[in-house]
Amino acid sequence: MTAKFPRVAAAATVFKVAGAVLVLAASAAVFMAAGAALAAGPGQDQDKEVLKLQLPKPMFVGTPRNIKTPNLETVSGRARGPFYVPKGTTLLSLNKPVAASDKEPVIGEIGFVTDGKKSGEDGYYVEFGPGPQWVQIDLGATYNLQAILVWHYHSQARVYRDVVVRVAEDKDFIKGVVTVFNNDHDNSSGLGAGKDKEYIETNEGRLIDPKGVPGRYIRLYSAGNTSNDMNHYVEVEVYGTPSK
Amino acid sequence: MTTRRFTGLLLAVFLAALGVRLVGLGLRPMHHDEANQAVKFGQLLESGRYVYDKNEHHGPTLYYFSLPAARAAGARTLADLSESDLRRLPAVLGAAVVLVLALLASGLSREAVIFAGLFAAVSPVMVYYSRFYIQETILVFSLAGLLGAGWQWAKKRSVGAAAAAGLFAGLMAATKETAVILFGAAAAALIVVYFFSGQERVKFPVRVHYLGLIAFLAAAVAVVYLFYSSFLRNPDGPRDWLSSFATYIGRAGGEGQAAVHRYPWYYYLKLVGFNHPAASPLWSEAFILVLALAGAIAAFTAVRGRDGSPALQRFLVFFTALAAIAYSVIPYKTPWNVLPFYLGVILLAGLGAALMWRAGRFIVFKILALIVLVPGLANLAGQTYQANFVLPADPKNPYVYAQTLPDFQRLVGRVEDVSRLVPEGRNILVKVIAPPDETWPLPWSLRRFGRVGFWTDAASAGDVRGTPLVIASAGLAEKLEPALSESHQVEHYGLRPEVVLTLAVRRDLWDKLMAKVVAERKGP
User: N- or C-end of chain A: fewer Cβ atoms within 10 A?
Assistant: First the structure.
């Protein structure tokens, strides 16, 4: 029976088959493509108020592992307790300019760091290259810093390494440099060994208390994480009061 | 195609398949399953004893096949072996599939076999799991042997070919319990071809070849019995193998612990069809799938080719479809299970490519075929490079599944660093306190350490305050906190995505380590 068919017919059949398959493949592709606000507590200082934080919805499915160790903070599943700041404290970092050691992020844009969007989903985080990297926020003026909140990446349980947060009055970090957080316990970043604890990323972010130090520039360092060597930021928020 | 050209081309394809499988075998950290298999093999290597376990580890061929090469290399203990040493066996057998396909040349055409060999050589999923120290590649190699020898038996009615088919069938059964799915699919496909495929064109032997059947069964039973009985040292082994099916039937349903591997029916189709994670290349073997569909349709039309056997081609269509359906409807799925029926897909793709190649006699048709085939093969080769050499353990790679993270290697490196600071060296005491699913591949990775203990709960591990090194799952580390908070420095390392291990280094050793690090940074 084969011999009755010319080869041209064979080729035509193949092309018809290929067409049908393309339609099938397209159909298959379509088919497959598939907050916790802080409450004021008793015994509140008259000169202070509760810092109101806008938290993204949790991304964890079920209860994450309880990773409480001497150097790792507890993931309790409960909202963080109230954190008190002086009255008049405001969010300073929203949409402020951001610089980074890695000028060309692998995913996302540098501006994501202060765009106010804190979702853990794809499309809300910026990914910087492997190894030690930093981002730097320019507040535009010097403030007394009251709180810094960092969300590296909270859709997966992971620990970011060598997290160091420093504040300075100039962009080159020469004048008035203060380290407000450092968990680089083996000093692999060369900024000095830190005593702060490593922590697992959650939708709550990491709240750092800068204790009112004055500063205009905030630089955040990290050096990869337990899942990969990349560095991520969903959002950084800096709260403060006008510098006197 | 002349015999000389066919032989030369097939050897070239084999060498290409071998090369891509053997290079950089140590790049990817040992997977949980690989480490499990390696430690099981270590028992055979070190004691000469193997006992089939009906609940875990699958059949014995992986270990017995690993033994000659390990001994020839002078290995006497597991500590003498590296990841590459172990992965070399599946890598070679994965490439050898190309050679075995030659047995099918008279039924598919030589061109089809060459193209199928090329697809097997560069298919990302085939290459990726050929570099895994697990049973799948042996199963695929044996399946290719069964198909090839079975076809020779059907064609020549030779007792030798029947015995060879039985040997390969026995090896399949002695490799993995899921071989019964493939036997079932093959038997059903034979029946369908025999009864419903137009007997005027079917050239399978209509008369039963009793002598061959006896040889086939005798060879298969002998192989199964020898392997499962540990070569007559464990008479209970074959019976345990038979009773293992109850375990695997339960697991196939995705019940209990197996529930974490429950996936929808289209899991395998998606795995090889389309994956495009963020900041990742597009992963797709659609080129092979499209050609396979063309080959499958052509097997039922008049364009099947001038020197192929419609019966064999239709058998392959039914076998591949039935096996794919069977694997897809089983709720329990792991990605490497795609390989056995994907071999059928690759054979059909070879058929489709050969049809394209032979669509016209004139050179212009050959050039047109090359314009389609060469970029398609190049794309597959590019994906294979990405999957195996750029992102071998990265979750963006769709073939990465419950893979140990590269970060885990840092933990092992830290343990090595600390062991160099103490007089006892690798006899330093290491306590591992973690549930089993958060323990592997530590038994493999710490195989060269003399004093490593494994506990699944903190209480059983005893007092850890004086222990030089404690590795604990993050979940159990909380119970250790009172004991370790002052006496140890704790670090964290990723085992798998979402799974973090803690390493506690006794304070005096930590201080020594930091002093050494500082001295090294300063330089001489």
Answer: C
Q: Are residues B383 and B516 in the same domain?
A: no
pTM, entire model:
0.82
Tell whether A227 is within 8 A of chain B (Cβ): yes
* CATH code of the domain in which B470 resides: 3.40.190
Total number of domains constituting chain B: 2
Verify that B301 and B425 share a domain, yes or no.
Answer: no
Residues B317 and B446 in one domain: no
- Note whether B414 and B356 are same-domain residues: no
B152 burial level (CB within 10 Å; 0-12, 13-18, 19+): buried
Does residue B342 belong to any structural domain of this protein?
Answer: yes
Predicted ipTM of the assembly:
0.73
DSSP H helical segments within B123-275, as ranges? 124-130, 136-156, 159-175, 179-196, 210-228, 237-252, 267-273
Q: Is residue B452 part of a domain?
A: yes
Verify whether the Cβ–Cβ distance A193 to B514 is below 8 Å.
yes
CA dist A163 and B223 (Å) reads 58
Which of chain B's residues have a Cβ under 8 Å away from the Cβ of A20? 293
pLDDT digits (tens, 9 = 90+) for B420-458: 999 999 999 999 998 888 888 999 999 999 888 888 888
A-B Cβ pairs (cutoff 8 Å, strict): 155
The DSSP symbol for A87 reads T
Q: Which residue of A has its CA nearest to B353?
A: A14
Q: Which of A124, A226, A227 to probe by mutation at the B interface, max B CB count within 10 Å?
A: A226
